[in-house]
Amino acid sequence: MKLNDKIKTFLSILALLLIGFILGFQTNRYLMKRHLQRMVETRVGPRLTDHLIRSLQLDEAQLSQVKPIVERYTSQLTSITRTSMQRRGQLIDSMHQEIKPLLKTEQIETLDKFSERIKRSRKKRGKKGRKKKRVQQE
Which of 12, 13, 58, 131 could form an S-S bond across to 63 if both were Cys, CB 3.0 to 4.6 Å? Predict the structure, then answer.
């Protein structure tokens, strides 16, 4: 094999690796963007309603009572900006308190677990925000 052929082979392999890296990076970027968008939609908007209804496995009677309550709170949640995360938490807690009397025991447990996950994620976001502020101040 000539030196020229070896260089061509090497460059071809290098080009394929580079193309694979670029495509992998772009695919990962697209998937992460889509995942983050879904997370945001789940917190507020119609996906919150769908998620709660699916998670709690409401029967028809409960659905007819719970859905308007959730939608009312969801519209309020949507109007609140990111700067008022504490108010959002209060609204979610109020919504859960209003829904709980309409739920069965296992549904209340599911709702409580859901609430805990939301509270933990709020605390994590709060800690990250404080760290960023400290770094910027230094």
Answer: 58
